[in-house]
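Hi, here's the filled form for the chain we discussed.

Project: internal
Contact: R.S.
Residues: 654
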Amino acid sequence: MAFFKKKTKPEEPMDLESVMKKYDQESNVRIWEGKPRLAVNCVLAAFSLFCIYVTLFTSWLEELRLTSFVAWIVLLGFLVFPARKSHVKPNTMPWYDIVGMVLGTGAFLYFTANAIDIIQQGTNFAWYQIVIGIVGILALAEVCRRSVGLPILIVAGCFLIYALGWGLSNPSLWGKLNYAIRYLFYSKEGILSTPINVCSKFIVVFIIFGAFLERTGIADFFINIANAVVGGFSGGPAKVAVVASAMEGMVSGSSVANTVGSGSVTIPLMKRTGYKPEFAAAAEASASTGGQIMPPIMGAAAFLMADYVQVPYGEIVVKAILPAVLYFAGIFIAVHLEAKKEGLRGLSKDELPKIRPLLKQVYLLLPLVLLVYLVGTSQRSIQYAAALAIVAAIFVSLFNKDTRITPKRLLEALAAGGQGMITVAAACGIAGIIAGTITMTGLANVLINGIVALAGDKVIVALFLTMVCCIVLGMGVPTTANYCIMAATCAPILIRMGVPTVAAHFFVFYFGIVADLTPPVALAAYAGAAIAQANPMKTAITSTKLAIGAFIVPYVFALNPAMLFIDTTVWEVALICVTSFVGIFAVSAGMEGYIFHHMSWPQRLISTLGGLMLIDPGLVTDTLGLVLVGLVLVMQVITKRSASTAAAGATGAK
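And the returned structure, exactly as it came back:
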């Protein structure tokens, strides 16, 4: 990355830290310096080591494992995140934060210390136990507010108000509150349900792995290799953004962090080669957001999905490949056509890194290759595979003195992994409360029956209503938490309508992600716009257009699950690959308004319609789609020849 920083200077100095703090709640952390910083890092590192130890080497009772895990999260949440975004004095922690940290941590540790007795006491809870439960829930909610933001808490609050007001049958408020706390705090149906269980068992090790992998310099390697491969082509920097973000996204779960990280390099390069600021920011934001659907990790949601649908993690990863490739292919085609339309060049040979030196760094891929191999062959558990990948990351770092993981960097990596867990775990805990509230009130059945009745026998109507719910609830809610909520509410609706279980869960997962690109709360797009010094709303609209594949592909695999390799043959998969890629090309061309020449509105409509037909597998739709796309291509060739002839005639006349 250093190579490009020398070559690239934005019009005005960019404060990437302020961009992250504005659009990424997780970046607003307390300021610790000197010895206090070292002490906090040691506590965070101890949490990481605790998680690795418990995950790999113990067989604790779930109530013990999960309550101790959440106790750590509450402790570290108050320790790391201040109450407000505004500037805080270094090495200071207000008294109310200390009180909240002690009470909240103590509430969960009380459950840990008395887990056996609490399990055996049935429904006979003393008043003080209910108070402890309330304190624990409020403390976790406050950590979530600080590290994630308000949107998910507003959703949780609405469901809790419904439960205490109308959803529970007990006539007294204390009776309703008593039942709700027992259900949400002391059972495995609320905070301690699937989201936090999967988080503590699988996600934590992969977040720690990501922290170690980042320190090997692999992000720089991805950007440099992408520049070497596609940087010299027309509109090269935009293609670099797509390729690099797809590779980085394999191990990252934050669309905003992806956008700011790689966008600080690619967006200025795109602007310099002629892309409009809005388009440059949108290309990076849409590609970075797509990183969360790229196997093998998919922003940690792959582990949750595997647990929800009871399908091996390796199968989830395989099923995700074709939709993810189609998504990135659509963005790649769009930036290529935009470059052709605007006559943009790529980077010069002098600006491109040499491929031979980069090939000497291919060893950086060893941790990823090892991880995919171990998980794909099921030779080791997912947690054990991630732990071995961490060891491999430390090993490959030794080959470069600039990235070598020394004892100091080892502590920093463990601390970064521990800090990265706070946001995900807090969101998962609140998502568990939402899902638990829906279950204990029977609201899930009400929602399912209502939408099924509204949709009738029209699956497409149910899909559309589900899409709207996912996008609305996903605005400002982390992908992992959003998926948990949608898996509990909307996925069962689609399953009731006849959509295969895996396809239904992929559908809600995809539309939870595109909320980061969709106005009005398009955080990834706004972060990209801040770097590009572009209009935020125009950037969000452009990013939505570039990511059109994310709005189309889910409907395809919901209506025809063969795209997810469900009940299909090799021939059908090959046919789907060909027709879907042609379809994505046609839709992207229609959106851009260019193939060989500027397209008229009728040509754009025909191209888009033909592309949609090709993306939907089927003999009739494929045939009609090919005819329409072929018609547009012929029209484009004729238009280009006419324009060339006219230009030649005008030149001759001169």
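Let me know if anything looks off before we file it.
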